Model the fold of this input.
Amino acid sequence: MSNESVLEGGKKLPLVEDFYTIQGEGFHTGKPAYFIRLGGCDVGCAWCDAKYTWNPRMYPPTNIDEIVDRAVACAAQSIVITGGEPLLYPLEPLTRQLKERGLAIFLETSGSHPFSGTFDWVCLSPKQKSKPLDEAYGRADELKVVIQSESDIAWAEECASRVGERCLLFLQPEWSVAEEIMPLLVEYAKRNPRWSISIQSHKYMRIP
Done:
């Protein structure tokens, strides 16, 4: 049986977890949001802090009606769909139901798979191991590039040259080297003020 059949065209999705928290990264840092985290990722970054999501077989397909009901019951009306890599799956059924219930939908993606679904905000976090598709750059409202070493800045600039003029640009230090590399990023942003710094504030707040 194909993956598409098991998921019934997106009526079911491999849900890792869904929870209410504070957005910790990027432009929407500090805002309450309901997170829907899907399993499965074929990028495999060594520094990923959500490696437990990589194998979608660990997460039985969940009916999206259940997911939407829990999201609607949440006080915040902003939904973040993340992973893993959520664009591995047909997201139109899920996003359609969420929009019908009046919710704002934010997507976090590497952009390495074709888009499906409707979103109010797209955060593109590109990875060199599996580069974004051309359409991802055009869909991005926010470009958030994880920086592990100084050489990653060239990758960030390459990506920035491909997004739209209104796309917001963020450099985010990889957590394990954040203290070491932060002075470099601060000085780079000061010299190139179109870039802002994103930090993983949720880790400082000790929340998911």
Notes: The longest helix spans residues 178-191. The radius of gyration is 17 Å. The chain is about 25% helix and 25% strand.
